[in-house]
Design brief:
The protein has 572 residues and is an all-alpha fold. A hairpin with a 2-residue loop joins strand 1 and strand 2.
Length: 572
């Protein structure tokens, strides 16, 4: 019997290099140069706070860390909704926004954090500036996967649903009635994964130091790091235990109820026999007070917000007929921006020309070494996340048991325990290389796992029944249904995981622990060493080299695969 393919595959047209890429590269070069230039004027020493290891301080540290995570997530969601919407529906904006997103998700956070700290310190008190900088750092670890997931959902909405929304003339209301519901499952799973990745970078945000400049902040990350540095295993246990309890509470009171609620938005013609459940969601639905709050408060707020947005859009449309002065102001802003980009790029080139050939050779060797580690980490992650993610996404009962375990495991910051792993592996052949790959894997594998779980849980039940009626064996079912359905989610996860691995290379390849500095060959180690030693020209060159490498890989590999996912693997 001949097996009919449920998904048709065609190669998309190759996307050419556009003027948007040129502008994006100039923006990145100018921003990095501005950061390096500001670093010259940084204060020679900054004294950080004392971190107490008393158990009584943990509730306050927990509250402050959770507040930073929540603020960064709110900023990430707002950014993702606007950014993804523009990239999905504006061809001109897509030519600039997607290349910019490719670059931003791969730029090492450590390179930009001094810029953010110094910029905020110029207008805000030091404590507030450090708080804002920490939120920005956590934001950069959460936002990219949410943005890619939102963009992928918008570009894969079936044409029939879009045509229905056009017939009913929903206009901007299509966001609430079609686009957000269609993307709900993917957004929730990627939000969970964003929080898991955010906990990983929270420690880096709360313990950030540059030489003698100590920008640490009181929080769980600083508590765990201080406990590890002092060898206080009792405090390490208290800190990890507090973090585990916090993750379990968030899972039971936030994420599992959201998953149970979002199951109603799954696009299928047959009802799932075992939908995800949540005891808190069931209690909330049967609560009279919750019903009153929804009807009297939430509904009124939603109606007022919709009316305000509608009026704002009407005013914007009415004024878009545009005054002549407004157009000239826009042209003047563009001219000033172009002049700034050209000036910054020229000064950056001037700095790069002064770098000796030996340092350029070291940058090339470091790029190759880090690329090999990133590839190894992605290969190892794919080998175990695909089968496990499909198993969890296809079985709500299994998800009930494993999801809290995965959430807790993914959320424990690996940097808290990584120095112990380094000391254990340092004596082995290629021990630091293994440790670097291990940290990259621990920090990026969850991007793939959560996306694969989301893709498996979104496979329509009627397609599963169809594959059963056709009596497909396991191999054919994976070839014709499971892998094609997962393909967009795998690519989304792989893009963010790859960028996360490049980011993690700064921490993975250069480690300071207990007064010792351990490093291995890699571009991340080169950037960290340049930052610590104040070699700012080398920092500029190494960062730009990493950005150029990642952009090239994204354009030659991930962008083509993403085109296949967006255009050929949609179910309609």
């Amino acid at each position: 019997m001949r097996i009919t393919r449920l998904f048709r595959v065609e190669q998309p047209a190759e996307r050419p290099f556009t003027w948007g890429d040129v502008i994006v590269l100039l923006v990145i070069i100018t921003l990095i140069y501005a950061g390096v230039r500001l670093a010259y004027n940084a204060p020679p020493a900054v004294r950080g706070p004392e971190i107490s290891l008393a158990p009584g301080t943990l509730p306050w540290y927990t509250f402050r860390s959770l507040g930073r995570m929540a603020a960064a997530y709110a900023l990430s969601m707002a950014f993702s909704l606007v950014y993804g919407y523009l990239a999905a529906y504006s061809r001109r904006a897509e030519q600039m926004l997607l290349p910019l997103l490719d670059v931003l998700q791969s730029v090492p956070i450590l390179s930009f954090l001094p810029v953010v700290l110094l910029s905020f310190s110029a207008i805000l008190p030091q404590a507030i500036a450090a708080e804002f900088a920490a939120i920005v750092l956590i934001f950069t670890s959460q936002v990219w996967n949410i943005t890619f997931a939102w963009y992928q959902s918008l570009t894969t909405i079936p044409k029939e649903l879009r045509e229905v929304s056009d017939v009913f003339r929903l206009g901007w209301l299509r966001l609430r009635t079609l686009e957000l519901p269609f993307a709900a499952i993917s957004l929730i799973w990627n939000s969970m994964m964003g929080w898991a990745g955010g906990w990983f970078f929270l420690m880096a945000a709360e313990i950030f130091t540059v030489g003698d400049r100590d920008f640490r902040l009181p929080g769980l990350g600083a508590y765990l790091q201080a406990a590890a540095n002092r060898g206080d295993l009792r405090a390490v246990g208290f800190g990890i235990g507090t973090l585990v309890v916090l993750i379990v509470v968030l899972d039971q009171l936030v994420w599992r109820p959201l998953l149970a609620w979002s199951d109603r938005f799954k696009l299928e013609m047959v009802e799932n026999r075992t939908p995800p459940t949540s005891w808190f969601y069931d209690a909330w639905r049967t609560s009279r007070m919750a019903h009153w709050l929804g009807a009297r408060v939430a509904y009124q707020v939603l109606e007022a917000a919709e009316g305000w947005i509608g009026r704002r859009l009407a005013v914007t449309v009415a004024s878009s007929s545009g005054s002549r002065a407004g157009r000239w102001g826009w042209y003047a802003a563009l001219a000033l921006g172009a002049a700034g980009l050209l000036y910054g790029s020229a000064r950056a080139v001037e700095v790069l020309l002064r770098i000796p050939p030996g340092q350029w050779a070291a940058i090339g060797v470091g790029l190759i070494a880090t690329l090999l580690r990133v590839t190894a980490a992605l290969a190892i992650a794919l080998a175990w996340t695909v089968p496990l993610g499909v198993a969890i996404g296809s079985s709500p009962r299994l998800a009930t048991w494993l999801q809290p375990v995965i959430q807790v495991t993914a959320s424990v910051p690996a940097t808290a325990l990584f120095p112990v792993f380094v000391l254990a592996l340092a004596a082995l052949p290629a021990g630091l290389n293994l440790a670097a790959v291990l940290l990259m894997l621990m920090g990026t594998q969850w991007y793939l796992l959560f996306n694969i779980i989301a893709g498996a849980s979104a496979i329509p039940q009627d397609l599963k029944y169809t594959s059963a009626l056709l009596q497909l064996d396991r191999r054919e079912r994976w070839r014709t249904l499971v892998l094609p359905a997962l393909f967009p989610y795998i690519i989304t996860g792989a893009i963010t995981a790859s960028g996360g691995a490049w980011n993690a290379s700064i921490v993975a390849e250069y480690i300071e622990f207990g007064g010792r500095t351990l490093s291995t060959v890699g571009i991340g180690a080169l950037i960290s060493h340049a930052t610590a030693s104040g070699d700012y020209p080398l920092l500029l060159a190494a960062t730009l080299a990493m950005v150029a490498t990642v952009v090239t890989v994204n354009r030659l590999v991930w962008r083509r695969l993403y085109g296949v996912a967006a255009e050929r693997y949609r179910m309609e």
